[in-house]
């Protein structure tokens, strides 16, 4: 079966690259699921959690969850590029730190930036699957 | 101990401690160059992908965009000068400042007003000392810039560009940074970041011909979202290159300072040895002279 070659690139580093069977991301128009053979698209991503179903040596591997703070997705001939100024794999996210940041942002400690900081922290927690619905 | 000898010894001690400092600076800079180069390399995939994306949208649609194309009237131009926060880096800071001033003179000659934006304490201090007003300054990250820093600068520049020269903003943005050519060579460069220019070319783009992308929500909106990121990615690259250059320039400056100190210590040691030898010779001749005088005196009295 054809596989997708995925490159997840943040501004200051390549976060992850490898093969996958499916990539799910949230674009401005709604969620898209990209599977092998998808038509070429390029769209703007919303700050969201993307899911990459990886393939290791032809067998399904881990399912990666990624916090994408905005960015773009480009798909062309089974190559998927996820570009984002800041992208973090769920496994890299420091949960206690994100929780603390969220609490501080909710308390308005970052002044004008509080709302944005709260959104970022919440996004991180959502990626790790620990967000509390509020 | 003679006054001269003491003086030489004191100088040797002071040069030695200076040498320790320059040597430490040299080692620190050497360690940081490698890291800075790695960061440049790590930021290239993003820059490459975003450049490709911008080219794809631009070649696919002939969407007009405020960031693309010359404005009919160019009233004001901005220069972003990237310098270091600290000195001790040889000609690194002066090279960049000189380049920026040449550019400013050129732009002023074309009848444009020049707004200065400065990164790094050294550049800011240069203008403050001369009473030249600055439209914006940032400092504290020149040796290890983060993407957030580039984004903050980019936002300020884009805001000013969008206002336009007639409303107190600018019509052009030039960036003076220092290109890291190699460990031994770094050169200050000028690049015009905005407005962007679309080049028509018949060459195939890097990485193959662009597929017929479907743009969501629309080509214009994708371009609108992409361009600011593209500018910021280029700025980030300029900051990283400059940081690597700063470390390389500092390493070289500190290496020659260390070498000079070694040479000075050698010279002073020679002089000090000579002075000590002269002192000993003088003491001996004084003793011999004294003993002779005593011997003569006692011979006469007998």
Automatic annotation (TrEMBL), chain A:
<comment type="subunit">
    <text>F-type ATPases have 2 components, CF(1) - the catalytic core - and CF(0) - the membrane proton channel. CF(1) has five subunits: alpha(3), beta(3), gamma(1), delta(1), epsilon(1). CF(0) has three main subunits: a, b and c.</text>
</comment>
<keyword id="KW-0066">ATP synthesis</keyword>
<comment type="similarity">
    <text>Belongs to the ATPase epsilon chain family.</text>
</comment>
<dbReference type="Pfam" id="PF02823">
    <property type="entry name" value="ATP-synt_DE_N"/>
</dbReference>
<comment type="function">
    <text>Produces ATP from ADP in the presence of a proton gradient across the membrane.</text>
</comment>
<keyword id="KW-0813">Transport</keyword>
<keyword id="KW-1003">Cell membrane</keyword>
<dbReference type="GO" id="GO:0046933">
    <property type="term" value="F:proton-transporting ATP synthase activity, rotational mechanism"/>
</dbReference>
<keyword id="KW-0472">Membrane</keyword>
<keyword id="KW-0139">CF(1)</keyword>
<protein>
    <recommendedName>
        <fullName>ATP synthase epsilon chain</fullName>
    </recommendedName>
</protein>
<dbReference type="InterPro" id="IPR036771">
    <property type="entry name" value="ATPsynth_dsu/esu_N"/>
</dbReference>
<keyword id="KW-0406">Ion transport</keyword>
<dbReference type="InterPro" id="IPR020546">
    <property type="entry name" value="ATP_synth_F1_dsu/esu_N"/>
</dbReference>
<feature type="domain" description="ATP synthase F1 complex delta/epsilon subunit N-terminal">
    <location>
        <begin position="4"/>
        <end position="87"/>
    </location>
</feature>
<dbReference type="GO" id="GO:0045259">
    <property type="term" value="C:proton-transporting ATP synthase complex"/>
</dbReference>
<dbReference type="GO" id="GO:0005886">
    <property type="term" value="C:plasma membrane"/>
</dbReference>
<keyword id="KW-0375">Hydrogen ion transport</keyword>
<dbReference type="InterPro" id="IPR001469">
    <property type="entry name" value="ATP_synth_F1_dsu/esu"/>
</dbReference>
<dbReference type="GO" id="GO:0005524">
    <property type="term" value="F:ATP binding"/>
</dbReference>
Automatic annotation (TrEMBL), chain B:
<dbReference type="Pfam" id="PF00231">
    <property type="entry name" value="ATP-synt"/>
</dbReference>
<dbReference type="GO" id="GO:0005886">
    <property type="term" value="C:plasma membrane"/>
</dbReference>
<comment type="subunit">
    <text>F-type ATPases have 2 components, CF(1) - the catalytic core - and CF(0) - the membrane proton channel. CF(1) has five subunits: alpha(3), beta(3), gamma(1), delta(1), epsilon(1). CF(0) has three main subunits: a, b and c.</text>
</comment>
<dbReference type="InterPro" id="IPR023632">
    <property type="entry name" value="ATP_synth_F1_gsu_CS"/>
</dbReference>
<dbReference type="GO" id="GO:0045259">
    <property type="term" value="C:proton-transporting ATP synthase complex"/>
</dbReference>
<keyword id="KW-1003">Cell membrane</keyword>
<dbReference type="InterPro" id="IPR035968">
    <property type="entry name" value="ATP_synth_F1_ATPase_gsu"/>
</dbReference>
<dbReference type="GO" id="GO:0005524">
    <property type="term" value="F:ATP binding"/>
</dbReference>
<keyword id="KW-0066">ATP synthesis</keyword>
<keyword id="KW-0375">Hydrogen ion transport</keyword>
<keyword id="KW-0139">CF(1)</keyword>
<keyword id="KW-0472">Membrane</keyword>
<dbReference type="GO" id="GO:0046933">
    <property type="term" value="F:proton-transporting ATP synthase activity, rotational mechanism"/>
</dbReference>
<dbReference type="InterPro" id="IPR000131">
    <property type="entry name" value="ATP_synth_F1_gsu"/>
</dbReference>
<comment type="similarity">
    <text>Belongs to the ATPase gamma chain family.</text>
</comment>
<protein>
    <recommendedName>
        <fullName>ATP synthase gamma chain</fullName>
    </recommendedName>
</protein>
<keyword id="KW-0406">Ion transport</keyword>
<dbReference type="GO" id="GO:0042777">
    <property type="term" value="P:proton motive force-driven plasma membrane ATP synthesis"/>
</dbReference>
<keyword id="KW-0813">Transport</keyword>
<comment type="function">
    <text>Produces ATP from ADP in the presence of a proton gradient across the membrane. The gamma chain is believed to be important in regulating ATPase activity and the flow of protons through the CF(0) complex.</text>
</comment>
